[in-house]
Amino acid sequence: MSQLQQAASLDDAINQIPDNAGAWHPVCALEDIWPNMGVCALVEGRQIAIFRLQDDLLYAIDNHDPHSDANVLSRGIVGDLGGERVVASPIYKHHYQLRTGVCVEDDSVRLNTYAVEVRDGAVWVQV
Fold first, then answer.
1. Mind listing the pLDDT tens digit for each residue in 11-41?
2. In degrees to the nearest 10, what's the CA dihedral of 87, 46, 57, 12?
């Protein structure tokens, strides 16, 4: 895949978060998520994996791993591949970009990503 195709693919992934995204929901206290770890939250009937990185950046993606058909991504290992923060599925080890939801090994597979932020020490996600 050329760099131009990769850039277009990345732009498409970032644009999957609609401007009219849903309501914000409180999930847990920030201190409940250890750095470089994830938790799973059930929000509006969806399992969402929320990750807190060492620098306190937060990311939220679907918890469902389409390669294994299991809801396990919140238990994955957080890391960095070529400057892109990822989570590795604990089953087949596919890597998903935390920022875009794109699978590194198969860029035709994309997870939903969700806006996430901290308000007064609590983690909120938009669904």
1. 444 444 445 569 999 999 999 999 999 999 9
2. 70
- The residue type of 89 is S
Tell me the sheet residues that pair with 37: 52
Is the whole-model pTM more than 0.90? Answer: no
Give the residue among 49, 56, 114, 125 at the shortest CA–CA distance from 87.
49
**Contacts for 69-78: CB closer than 8 Å, 24+ residues apart:** 71/40, 71/47, 73/38, 73/49, 73/111, 74/38, 74/39, 74/40, 74/47, 74/49, 74/50, 75/38, 76/38, 76/49, 78/36, 78/37, 78/38, 78/51, 78/53
**What is the arrangement of strands in the sheet containing 46-52, beginning at the earlier edge strand?**
37-43, 46-52, 58-62, 113-114
SS3 (DSSP) at 5 = helix
Q: Which two tokens stand for residue 25?
A: 């929901």
DSSP 17: S
* Listed residue (19, 24, 51, 49) closest to 35, CA to CA: 51
